[in-house]
Specification:
By secondary structure, the chain is of the alpha/beta class. About 40% of the residues lie in helices and about 25% in strands. A hairpin with a 4-residue loop joins strand 1 and strand 2.
Amino acid sequence: MLDGVDVFVEVVNASSFSRAAARLGMPATTVSARIKRLEEHLGTTLLQRTTRRLSLTDAGERYYAHCVQAIEAVLEAERAVATTLDEPRGRLRITAPADLAQAILVPTIKTYLARYPEVTIDLLVSNQFDDLVGDGIDLAVRVGELPSSSLIVRRFFTSAIALWAAPEYLDRHKAIRSLADLAEHQLIRMRTGRRGLVLKDGADSLNPDDLTSNLRVDDMLTCRACAESGLGIALLPIFSQAQADLAGRLVRVLPRVQTEDFPVQFLYPRQSLVPPTVRSFIETALEAAEH
């Protein structure tokens, strides 16, 4: 029972009910009632009261010593929390799909840890939508519009799906000049990808679901690896292909063709105060996305 402990300590420190009441900003009758309720809870008398003086019983002296230590521990905890509000520290658990983790988060994490060396990051690479609260995850990065939930959602950036292929594949197969030419090529698809995607080229459009494909995978990085090996044309997000494109492993097929933009978003549990680690990581990531 914590109710009344602070009042008890203040009464002992002031050596007076009336002085303690003045310090606490409450009526003396309230102070007296709090002490009485505390003694009833403990089943012992803590204070001996006379008209001229106030003294502690033996039980009161022992209880007072422990209460002072407990209050100091609480104050120290409050000071520690106040410190962390200014400077992020401790563990930050993040989950993201593999392609997002490698293409986007790794550079951000490098900047973040250099800026906040007292933070330890646990990066959980997974395509599954984890139970953030149940799994103790602080922050998730996910692609696309998400069903409504109790989680806080914050936009990170937008991207789109485009067509990519290895130079060797394009050299060995018929030239692709329009969406219609894709019917004569091998498409590499995500088996668990979003349905209903539409590739657009001005007024022309094509639903990839209408094309045949003899290779489907359930991981975006594997899909990219298949395209890099020359197995076909892959439907991949633009954000995950920048490095491969620059390295010459993949080139954009029909550069004007892509789907409509979709969001990449941060998710974190709803809470009265956002942890400083979560807040500062999002700020660092958004800062990097602007450049």
